[in-house]
Specification:
Blueprint lengths: L2 H14 L5 H13 L3 H6 L7 H15 L4 H5 L1 E4 L2 E4 L12 H9 L7 E5 L5 H9 L4 E6 L2 H13 L5 E5 L11 E6 L32 H10 L3 E10 L5 H10 L3 E7 L5 E8 L10
Parallel strand pairs: 3-4, 3-6, 4-5, 6-7
Antiparallel strand pairs: 1-2, 7-9, 8-9
Bound molecules: glutamine.
Length: 287
């Protein structure tokens, strides 16, 4: 059995199981098992598949055919060009979330400052920002100890030193601390959203995905609590679902933030809303 044939069979099996990216999935899994990149695979596809790797590959393809996310099967996912370890204890980093990183970087004007990432999971947002702003000090918090351990491992693997991860229930362990930027990709999907029954989300921790109040509970909580943890002039930036822009802007306005806006992701969907905390100010105009 050559590698090419093995791939073709796996792709057919995954396609029959309903995977929309069957060929790519098969390639990524085979690369993972063989410890090679896809260029290698294209070059050496007529080689015989080694028996041991063949068996491991078959097991991964079977798991993928059941719907298991690729990022859990390979144990990693790339985000902002960083290779991050993933685990079923955390949300899988999404390309959409890179918009939040960009928006935070655009507002990190001063050479030094402090950024807080709430519900950091793998540490993706915090690590991406920290890698771009080595003179900033970054804190990532998560409620789940498993996530904190994983995020620390990611920082170590990537040799990103200007970062610390802590266990905290939202702001609970941060009393008296202030930041220039507070960011979060909180759970924001409504409990009854049919999206939860499709694709990777079925295998991801519900606590990282689902929130009460039609998905808005976490976002509203963060809007309400963040102000006392922002320096004057500091920004709160929140990722949310594509139908939640107005609700988040309304919450920001009610809490007195200024310069409120919503940004779109690459797909043209509302994805990140933000507001500025101005001491003594009452906030104001939406844009
Ligand atoms: N964007 C993710 C999804 O729709 C959800 C992320 C989240 O709830 N924070 O799959």
């Amino acid at each position: 059995m050559t590698l090419d044939r093995l791939l073709a069979q796996a792709a057919a099996r995954l396609s029959a199981a309903g995977s929309p990216s069957a060929r790519l999935d098969a390639e990524v899994l085979l690369c993972h098992v063989l410890g090679v990149d896809r260029t290698w695979l294209y070059t050496w596809g007529d080689r015989e598949a080694p028996v041991f790797e063949w068996a491991r590959f078959e097991a991964l393809v079977a798991a993928r055919a059941q719907g298991q996310p690729i990022a859990y099967l390979t144990g990693e996912r790339e985000f902002w060009g960083l290779r991050l370890a993933t685990s079923p204890h955390t949300l899988i980093p999404r390309p959409d979330t890179e918009r939040l990183v960009e928006a935070a970087l655009e507002r990190a004007a001063s050479p030094r400052g402090r950024l807080l990432d709430l519900g950091t999971g793998t540490g993706a947002i915090a690590l991406a920002f920290a890698s771009e702003r080595p003179d900033w000090s970054v804190v990532g918090i998560d409620l789940r100890p498993e996530a904190v351990v994983l995020a620390r491992q990611n920082a170590e693997r990537l040799a990103i030193a200007n970062i610390a991860f802590r266990e905290s229930d939202w702001f609970a362990a941060l009393e008296g601390e202030r930041f220039h930027l507070v960011v979060s990709n909180p759970p924001y999907i409504a409990e009854d959203d049919p999206h939860l029954r499709r694709g990777d989300v079925r295998f991801e921790p519900q606590s990282a995905l689902v929130a009460a109040e039609g998905g808005l509970a976490g976002l509203r909580h963060l809007v309400g609590e963040a102000r006392v943890h922002l320096v004057s002039g500091g920004w709160l930036l929140l990722e949310h679902g594509h139908g939640q822009g107005k609700a988040v802007r309304d919450a920001l306005a009610a809490a007195g933030y200024a310069e409120i806006a919503t940004l779109r992701d690459l797909g043209g969907h509302d994805r990140v809303s933000l507001g500025r905390h101005v001491e003594g100010g009452t906030g104001g105009g939406q844009s």
